[in-house]
Amino acid sequence: MDLFFTSVTWAGSGLVLFPLALSISSARVLKGRKADALLVSGGLLGAFLLVHGLKRLFARPRPEAQDLLVAMPADFSFPSAHTAQAAAFALACAIMAGRDVSTAAGLLIWGSLGLSALLVGISRVYLQVHYISDVVAGAALGVAWVLALNRLVKWVVSGC
């Protein structure tokens, strides 16, 4: 399990997600799907900015742990940035992809992306770098931000 969770936690890292979001967004722009590009890139960037602002506001110390499998991050604990970013990215991609596929494929995409985000959150607790409440708050923040952004993008595209 150690190797699994030390690997899966990277799926919530900005080092992985920002280049991926840029690639997906660029491809969507080239296909004339600017709203999708905005949802994916804006979803991730907004979650990143919100979570790091809240970390400074709450300034919650990280859990005290011994024998860590990963280096303890230098920033504050609440809310979990990896989880917020994974949740925002997964939901934005699921919304985007769900528009273009059948119901069965959509369910598979939503389930796969949701499971990925869930595993990132679990990994943060397993690796002892976050409390459960950090992960729950991070997931809620990522989801809420993307839902709000999706509504805003739809409103703007429809002509306000």
Summarize the structure in words.
It is a single chain. The chain is 73% helix and 0% strand. The protein has 160 residues and is mostly helical. Helix 1 (2-8) crosses helix 5 and helix 3 packs antiparallel against helix 4 (81-98).
Write a brief structural summary.
It contains 6 helices and no strands. It is mainly α and 160 residues long. The mean pLDDT is 95.
DSSP strand (E) fraction? under 5%
Overall number of strands: 0
Helical region count? Answer: 6
Tell me the span between the first and last alpha carbons. 49 Å
Radius of gyration: 16 Å
Q: Which word captures the global form?
A: globular
Largest sheet: none
String of helices and strands: HHHHHH
How would the blueprint of this fold be written?
Elements: H1 2-8, H2 14-30, H3 34-58, H4 81-98, H5 103-126, H6 132-157
Helix pairs in contact: 1-5, 2-3, 3-4, 3-6, 4-5, 4-6, 5-6
Features:
mainly alpha; 73% helix; single chain; 160 residues; 6 helices
